[in-house]
Design goal:
Elements: H1 2-14, H2 18-27, E1 35-41, H3 54-59, E2 64-70, H4 77-86, H5 90-93, H6 97-102, H7 114-121, E3 127-131, H8 135-139, E4 148-151, H9 155-167, E5 174-179, H10 181-189, H11 194-216, E6 223-229, E7 247-253, E8 260-261, H12 270-279, H13 311-336
Parallel strand pairs: 1-5, 1-6, 2-8, 3-4, 3-5
Antiparallel strand pairs: 2-7, 6-7
Length: about 350
């Protein structure tokens, strides 16, 4: 009887329907995006806060970012790209640079990547990964998910491949990009060298080229664009726990993203939670990651002025949240096998 009553209440509220549903679409950013693009810059750390980065500045001028998000405790590439793509700490997924360079994973492996969940949710979606460091494509992202994987030996070739792919009319649901030349400069010349800072500035140029191609091909209309680094650098390399090594850029741009500096507790692996949330995919319980609470706001926030709150708006808010409550109760009943 209780379940029938709840169903009737839900149906009655849905008769207000268009108003409540419109409110839900306007205020709920879960699943509000058709495209998620992640641009990873290996070794960048927090360097764009110290050098000229005009493209980063223009792309994220009205969006969310933090220059010094936390990395994994071990500041090497596989540990961090693994966490960024699986949403679990490095001591859970266990990836190392050597392992990822010499092994492949499939969908029977533990600690699935976000590509696995995207494929389950969207069986026919275009999923793609463009990498300079090829170990990500076969050592972290599963090999049996029909993900288009592209490896190129230089960052300029990676960028050109991305631009050609997008200009050909492809509309990926999930795209991951890894550029490597910043990390290469640090390994060759040191993390505080002029060559390293020059490479960071060049990476900003690549970022602008990628973003412009994304925007010009219509993906930002309902797209989320992120930039993230795996780790930073020191004069002698990386892998330790200094501030320079364990700080990393994390930035998010999209229609319902608030203009805010992300909180100091944000981690680079939160990219996984943000990606799943944006695409409307429930986050698996085992993931140790979260969507920053200040990240998303109203879908129309940056394009229309805030409307005055009148009686009808309050009624819509009440109806929307009551509908969500009833739906959750019904779901609990179903999972528990309760017949009321």
């Amino acid at each position: 009887m209780m379940k029938k009553i709840l169903s009737v209440l839900l149906s009655a509220l849905l008769l207000c329907g268009c108003a409540s549903i419109a409110f839900a679409e306007e205020f709920d950013s879960f699943g509000a995006y058709d495209h998620v693009i992640i641009c990873g810059i290996d070794g960048l750390g927090a360097t764009w806060g110290k050098v000229d980065s005009p493209n980063f500045d223009r792309i994220f001028a009205d969006d969310a970012y933090r220059h010094n998000a936390h990395t994994e405790y071990i500041t090497t590439s596989a540990q961090n790209w693994g966490s960024i793509l699986t949403g679990v700490p490095y001591d859970v997924h266990g990836f190392t640079n050597d392992w990822c360079s010499n092994n492949e994973r499939d969908s029977t492996s533990d600690n699935h990547s976000i590509f696995y969940y995207a494929r389950k949710q969207f069986p026919d979606a275009e999923l793609v990964s463009f990498n300079h460091w090829g170990a990500i494509n076969h050592g972290i992202i599963e090999n049996d998910l029909n993900v288009k994987k592209v490896h190129r030996d230089t960052d300029p070739l990676v960028v050109q491949s991305i631009i050609s792919y997008l200009n050909a009319g492809n509309k990926p649901t999930l795209m991951f990009i890894q550029l490597d030349s910043v990390d290469h400069a640090a390994h060759t010349y040191g993390g505080f060298s002029d060559q390293y800072y020059n490479a960071a500035e060049k990476a900003d140029t690549y970022l602008g080229m990628i973003y412009d191609a994304v925007e010009q091909n219509g993906l930002m209309e309902k797209g989320l664009f992120m930039v993230v680094a795996d780790h930073g650098e020191t004069a002698g390399g990386h892998g330790g726990q200094t501030v320079e090594e364990s700080s990393a850029i994390l930035a998010v741009a999209g229609n319902s993203v608030n203009s805010v500096e992300l909180n100091e507790d944000v981690h680079n692996r939160d990219v996984s939670a943000i990606s799943l949330y944006a695409l409307g995919i429930a986050q698996p319980a085992h993931m140790v990651t979260s969507v920053p609470e200040e990240l998303f706001g109203e879908w129309t926030e940056k394009t229309t002025p805030a409307a005055e709150t009148g009686p009808l708006d309050l009624l819509r808010r009440f109806a929307y949240f009551f509908v969500m409550l009833v739906e959750n109760l019904l779901s609990v009943f179903d999972r528990a096998g309760i017949s009321c």
